[in-house]
Specification:
Quinone Oxidoreductase, Chain A, domain 1, 16 strands, 10 helices, 344 residues
Length: 344
């Protein structure tokens, strides 16, 4: 079968031919319907050899959806041909976090070398993929897998961050999304669906700002120092109550620290490698700075329900499996609108 794989440190991914996998006990084989391309993929492919720990060759794609093709021994409650999404952050399944469906915070995944698909295990950017346990499947029902596969990360990750800040996002407050790409354009929609806060999107690119407005942002401004003053005007002088930084670079986090008020939230959602110094005088007192990772299985079900209600949608561009390396070229160049989806 064909697969898009990262095969050499520092080299571009390429489409290869590999054997079709067979499900073992407790596993499920999916005929892949769609796979999303993410900046996380680009991040791990940019790591030097001494920091890379995901194995080679690596079949990419941690956003996956497909139809059940085969069931391993012991798998029950699923039917061949069912359309499913894959919950990506796999854990041990038995620790306290996993028992709550929070496998994104599994205590033992790292030490037991349990890796997500596309981030250590073979991913979804192939004709078939193995899901290691049926608990990592979520039914899609009548949702289009191509249009909704990115909800497994690009929707789930900002949803988890926003859900945590909901008690603070009251009417009249301002929520800021930095970066209006794959994650950011979803964060804008989730904020509009779940809160009455005024939503401001920041991005350096004009087309990204327009995308933010198209999906519901109240304002879209450049990611620059002057926008901090504009946000204070929009908020009646208060500042931002929550900032969801979908870039995560030093420059964007510095902006976030300057625009919030006391008791605000700053969520570092993006993998830009930045940091925000925290001291007694900066950022404002009792500002919470945190780095959420993915989300729980139940939160993924909630995200899919938002899509069923028509409250959120993913802006997508589709590519064939043979074109998969092009998705990453477009992503690096910043020319994708929303999320790039590979359709085997």
């Amino acid at each position: 079968m064909k697969a898009c794989q990262y095969v050499e440190i520092g080299a571009a991914p390429k489409v290869t031919d590999i054997p079709k996998p067979e499900p073992g006990p407790g596993q499920v084989l999916l005929k892949v319907s769609a796979a999303g391309a993410c900046h996380s993929d680009e991040f791990i492919m940019s790591l030097p050899a001494e920091q890379y720990a995901y194995g080679l060759p690596l079949t990419l794609g941690h956003e996956g959806a497909g139809e059940i093709a085969e069931l391993g021994d012991g798998v029950e409650g699923w039917e061949l041909g069912e359309s499913v999404a894959v919950y990506g952050p796999w854990g041990c399944g038995t620790c306290h976090a996993c028992a709550q469906g929070k496998e994104n915070y599994c205590r033992y995944a790292a030490e037991r070398n349990i890796r997500p698909p596309g981030l250590g295990n073979p991913g979804a950017m192939a004709e078939y993929m193995i899901v290691n346990d049926q608990r990592h499947l979520v039914r899609l029902g009548d949702l289009d897998p191509v249009q909704n596969v990115a909800l497994t990360d690009a929707g789930l990750t900002p949803y988890h961050a926003i859900r945590t800040s909901l008690p603070k996002l009251l009417p009249g407050r301002v929520a800021v999304v930095i970066g209006a790409g794959g994650l950011g354009h979803m964060a804008v929609q989730i904020l509009k669906a779940l809160t009455a806060a005024t939503v401001v999107a920041l991005d350096l690119k004009e087309d990204a700002r327009q995308l933010a407005l198209d999906v519901g942002a109240d304002y879209a401004l450049p990611s620059e120092r002057a926008s901090v003053d504009e946000i204070r005007k929009i908020s009646g002088g208060l500042g931002a109550t929550a900032v969801f930084d979908c870039v995560g670079a030093d420059a964007t986090l510095a902006l976030a620290g300057k625009m919030v008020h006391e008791e605000a939230d700053i969520a570092v959602v993006g993998l830009g490698g930045g940091s925000l110094p925290v001291g007694f005088l900066f950022p404002p007192h009792e500002t919470r700075v945190w780095s959420p990772y993915w989300g729980s299985r139940s939160e993924l079900e909630e995200v899919l329900d938002l899509a069923r209600l028509g409250a959120i949608h993913v802006e997508t561009e589709s590519f064939t499996l043979d074109e998969a390396p092009t998705v990453y070229e477009r992503m690096h160049a910043g020319t994708l609108r929303g999320r790039g989806i590979v359709v085997p």
